Amino acid sequence: MDQSPTDAIDTRRKFVEAWNETIIDIWQEKIMKLGVFNTGSLWQSTVELPLKADGRFYDITLSQTFLEYGLWQDFGTGRNTAIGNTHRRDNDGWSNKRQRRRWFSVKYYSSAMKLRDFMAESLGHEFKSMFCAALDADNARHNTKYYRSKGYTR
Predict the structure, then answer these.
(1) Rounded distance, CA 119 to CA 49, Å?
(2) C-alpha distances in Å from residue 13, one per residue of 17, 28, 69, 102, 131
(3) What is the value of pTM for the model shown?
(4) pLDDT recorded at residue 65
């Protein structure tokens, strides 16, 4: 992956922006597929917030937002319902209909790990190329005062 530093920065910027947009699309698709769609407020609440990054895309901050209600759907809990769907009125003939609908947690974690791997690879290649240029024998010879004074440069 021999890219110039500006190409590497541009590649990272494009990947991060596309990742941020794609995660929202995935969430909305999962919400519809799993039926976590009553009033549509959770589906409409999934929004990507502006991307914050330094100029070289070494340090990035991605933010997404959605209604807190979405977490309870993902966990399968809610008002008067503990994790595991146990309820004190089960013996009275009342059954709890809440089920865990994992629209958020699984896909978000795996996508975040893919982003992590991409950034590690991209920054690793850039870091490696810095040292390859610095340790190149011809480059060192041309930029060293001793070799220039001896006439060993081109």
Answers:
(1) 20
(2) 6, 23, 32, 29, 23
(3) 0.62
(4) 83
